[in-house]
Structure formats: structure tokens, C-alpha cells
Amino acid sequence: MVGRVERNKDLVQEVVESAAHRVGNITSIITAAVADVAREIGELVTDGFEMREAARAASIDTEQAPKPKNHEEELDSLNGYDSDLDDDAADEDN
Known about the structure:
By secondary structure, the chain is mostly helical. Helix content is about 85%, strand content about 0%. The chain is built from three helices and no strands.
């Protein structure tokens, strides 16, 4: 027959083991959540860097884009009368 002290010892042992197991599970959940949050924040910052670089590249492309020709200049170009070529030829004559 099991005595009262041994029964209480077994009860305390089960409670401590169960509590330790639960605390371990909770710690694992919290650790995973912190890691997930850190990953998401890192990806958000990376997206911000990529957007900033894309905006910078777009502004550079916009600055370097040639001025579009008006309708008359386009027709002259199609007919072989580029004003750019005429200007270059005039510069060479001088």
C-alpha cells in the first residue's frame, strides 16, 4: 500500500512535469512568433529598399528620355529631313 507522503510526492512530480511541458510548449510558440515577426519586418524593409531603388531608376530614366517630336518633326524625320542632321551639317560648314 502507498503511503500519503509518497502519493503527495507523485502528485507534485506530475504537476511539475506537466507545468514544465506546458511552459516549454508556450516558449516554443512565442519563439516561433518572434521569428515570424522579425522575418516579416525584414521583408517589409527589403520591399521599401526595392521600391526606393525602382523610384530612383525611374526618375533617372525619365530625366534621360528624349523630348518627343511634334507631328511636323516626325513627318520631316520620316521624309528624311531631320532637323538634327541639318543642324550638324550647318555646324560643320562653319
